[in-house]
Amino acid sequence: MCALLQGAEWVDFATVRELLGVSDPMVSKHSRTLETAGYLEVRKGAVGRRPKTWFRLTPTGRAALLSHLAWLTELRSAVDQAPGAQPSHPAAAEAAREAGDP
Amino acid sequence: MADTPELDQVAEMRRKIAAHAELPRAYWVVFAAVCVLIAGIPIWSSFLPGADAYLRWGLLAVALGSAAYAVVRRRRSGVYLPRRVFAYPSARGLWVAVMAGTAAGFVGVYILVDLGQLGIALAALVPVAVLASVGQIRIRTVMRRDLEAGRVNP
């Protein structure tokens, strides 16, 4: 959900649900958790008579996401470079084969 | 260690949101036609001396139509991407170059009309429209790549 919101200014509830392929309660639950943590800003309004909810990441949420992704990327690199380790990514597997790694 | 589906999920979500940066083909056809019309204003003014007011109203209609399209599109898709091109780091330089080239083309048409070279000015409309259209399409593609790579900062 955070990755979805990272590049956008606002994304509405229905679009988040469709793009993630999850149910309404799931989106509500996760958005509440993220909002409580200060990572998500929620805006409620209406388009015509239809109520709408929009989400966007806060600067704190954006920083937390980038930090988490950097950690995951570092972890994957460390695992792929470990001797005897099975590369976790197809590109890393190809590179290991070319380098003669069993 | 097992693979990292989380990073793959992040990449997939970024690709899904980046798809909203592209505009439909019909938009670019209309865009190119409008570029020809706007770049040719000095030419149409010289053919129709009393039509300045109509040209101004036409420009206003184009501006309003473009704004309305943007609002309706964002509302329908539910995705509000950053509107400033400077939120997309890779697109900044290209945008400046395309704007400068397009402005130079528009100014060139004005100069040619001033010099009485209407035929050459008419012929110059097509490359100016092509430069503007292809340039904007390229900018959109680069914006999409920035979204997919997570480089955008709204």
Automatic annotation (TrEMBL), chain A:
Keywords: DNA-binding. SUPFAM superfamilies: Winged helix' DNA-binding domain. InterPro entries: WH-like_DNA-bd_sf, WH_DNA-bd_dom, WH_DNA-bd_sf. Residues 3-75 form the Winged helix DNA-binding domain. It comes from the Bacteria. Transmembrane segments: none annotated. Residues 80-102 are annotated as: Disordered. GO terms for molecular function: DNA binding. This is Winged helix DNA-binding protein. The lineage of its organism: Bacteria, Bacillati, Actinomycetota, Actinomycetes, Streptosporangiales.
TrEMBL record, chain B:
Keywords: Membrane, Transmembrane, Transmembrane helix. The keyword Transmembrane helix applies. This is Transmembrane protein. The chain crosses the membrane at residues 26-47, 53-72, 93-112, 118-137. The keyword Transmembrane helix applies. It comes from the Bacteria.
